[in-house]
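Researcher: Quick test of sequence recovery. Tokens follow.
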């Protein structure tokens, strides 16, 4: 695998996000960057607040705030801004900063360049991508089951196929609940139905799905990463 050198330390690290580096992107003018030093600072403050479990404030006058910064902190911030706009422009700032606080409670400007932060980020990013791929497979299999289930079933006018699927019931409980509990559809697919209000659970139905009921907020946040993928699956189901 090709290697590259960190822009502001003589540290060699695995090149992860780009297969090659050109003169153009390594000498990019800081005046035309996509990510500003303010963006980097905001991501740092967000991660700091999350790690400490408290709120945070941002400077109202960024220019004035920078002038008052310690010279070394200002230099580290500048170098990090160049870093996030060139060799590793695909890094998620919030995720990167969170990794910093996992490594040090007192994570600050001087650590922005530390290779250990990047290594942890890469490790976590690989795990995240593998998990996302696995979730995509689960969603695809869920929609295959739904498509087969709806074969020869009556279709209610004015409803999409997925909405129609959520309407079938046995007694007072919707079929989708028991289907989910049997492992025929995945958690993100049923969360999609709940968030879009295709499925509005009764109190009795909630007791049948304690995992979702107890983790609804967390699962709703996780749904964001696969929302577009599920929308595409829903469109294909309606074809």
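Model:
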């Amino acid at each position: 695998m090709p290697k590259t050198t960190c822009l502001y330390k003589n540290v060699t690290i695995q090149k992860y996000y780009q297969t090659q580096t050109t003169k153009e992107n390594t000498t990019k003018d800081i005046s035309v960057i996509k990510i500003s030093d303010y963006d980097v600072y905001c991501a740092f403050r967000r991660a700091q607040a999350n790690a400490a479990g408290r709120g945070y404030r941002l400077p109202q006058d960024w220019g004035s705030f920078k002038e008052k910064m310690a010279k070394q902190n200002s230099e580290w911030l500048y170098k990090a801004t160049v870093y996030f706009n060139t060799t590793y422009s695909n890094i998620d700032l919030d995720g990167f900063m969170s990794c910093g606080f996992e490594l040090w409670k007192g994570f600050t400007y001087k650590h922005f360049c530390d290779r250990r932060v990047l290594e942890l980020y890469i490790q976590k990013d690989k795990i995240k991508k593998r998990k996302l791929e696995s979730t995509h497979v689960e969603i695809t299999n869920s929609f295959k089951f739904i498509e087969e289930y709806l074969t020869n079933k009556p279709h209610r006018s004015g409803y999409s196929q997925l909405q129609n699927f959520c309407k079938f019931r046995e007694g007072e409980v919707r079929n989708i609940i028991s289907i989910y509990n049997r492992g025929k559809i995945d958690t993100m697919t049923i969360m999609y139905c709940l968030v879009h209000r295709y499925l509005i659970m009764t109190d009795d139905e909630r007791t049948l799905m304690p995992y979702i009921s107890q983790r609804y907020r967390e699962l709703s946040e996780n749904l964001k990463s696969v929302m577009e993928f599920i929308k595409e699956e829903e469109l294909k189901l309606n074809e």
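DSSP finds 13 helices and four strands in the chain.
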